[in-house]
Automatic annotation (TrEMBL):
InterPro entries: SLATT_2. Keywords: Membrane, Transmembrane, Transmembrane helix. The keyword Protease does not apply. The keyword Membrane applies. The chain crosses the membrane at residues 64-84, 96-117. It comes from Stigmatella aurantiaca (strain DW4/3-1). This is Conserved uncharacterized protein. It comes from the Bacteria. Residues 17-199 form the SMODS and SLOG-associating 2TM effector domain.
Length: 299
């Protein structure tokens, strides 16, 4: 009759697969000092595994935060110009367009911080070395058990078993130390390269900033509206409409608009003179970086 398998479906799985724990096997007439040495090597490997496991989780959360923030900000930077184009003109949607550039810059900063401190790359590197250390631990335990069983079967001398055990422990410890050294060297190389790349990028942007400001033309213009014969209007009041959107009632002889997109805009003014409605309209052309002036006479 086959033994029943343990029911693990109701148990919550761990975040990572754990290294297998082998039952301890001793050689015939084995000294306690040799067993203590084996336990010390196993403890060192387990300590390294625990260190990488904890640090891996920390870098994972930071990597997810910065990468997720970069994706979200990039999406907002793409959607915002489309969304503000549907806003009413009285909301001055042109003012919100530069916010898309801010979102894009913040997203790029998240990517730069992730690359500089290596959250994503370190997360992957720690995971790889964690698996390697777990493999080394299992190989050591299996080799130790196999050596003990072989010694019992062939009845080899105590000195032969001691030499084989010491070689096994030394090779395992050397392999673990070499793995830790390789991981540290990779971290130093990555951080040094990321820092040099970051400094190079900052220097290039600092040098290019004055040139960009000098050659970047303005993207918006202004409009100045003057109402002729204002004193003949009832209560000296009139209502302005720009592109069919009401700009409210005004009493001054002039009204200025800023942040207007380039192109043609329909301007219409309505008021009352001696109780009778009067109006005037015109098509004005807005040129980026310039102020367009128009004088309207209501009739």
């Amino acid at each position: 009759m086959r033994p029943a398998l343990p029911n693990t479906t109701s148990e919550k799985p761990t975040d990572n697969l754990r290294a297998m724990r082998f039952p301890s096997a001793n050689q015939p007439e084995q000294d306690q000092e040799l067993q203590d040495l084996y336990n010390a090597v196993v403890a060192k490997i387990e300590e390294a595994i625990h260190w990488y496991d904890v640090r891996k989780a920390h870098h994972k959360y930071r990597a997810v935060f910065f990468r997720g923030s970069a994706i979200t900000l990039a999406g907002l930077a793409s959607i915002l110009p489309i969304a503000v184009s549907m806003f009413p003109l009285e909301w001055a949607p042109q003012r919100w367009v530069p916010v898309a550039s801010i979102f894009a810059a913040l997203g790029a900063s998240c990517i730069a911080l992730d690359r500089l401190y290596g959250f994503s790359s370190t997360w992957m590197r720690y995971l790889a070395y964690l698996l390697e250390l777990q493999t080394r631990l299992e190989m050591l335990q299996f080799g130790w058990t196999r050596l003990a069983l072989e010694t019992r079967l062939v009845n080899s001398s105590k000195s032969e078993g001691l030499i084989a055990s010491l070689n096994l422990l030394q090779n395992a410890l050397s392999a673990v130390n070499q793995a830790l050294k390789n991981e540290t060297s990779e971290w130093v190389a990555h951080f040094t390269g990321a820092l040099a790349e970051f400094e190079k990028s900052v220097t290039a942007r600092r040098e290019a900033a004055p040139m960009v400001l000098a050659v970047t033309p303005p993207s918006h213009g202004a409009l100045k509206v003057q109402i002729a014969e204002l004193d003949t209007l009832d209560n000296h009041r009139y209502e302005l409409h720009l592109d069919e959107a009401s700009q409210g009632e005004h009493t001054g002889a002039t009204k200025a608009f800023t942040g207007l997109g380039p192109g043609q805009h329909l301007l219409r003014v309505t008021a009352k003179r001696k109780g009778n409605p009067v109006s005037s309209e015109d098509v004005v052309t807005i040129t980026p970086g310039e102020t367009t002036s128009v004088v309207l006479t209501l009739s």
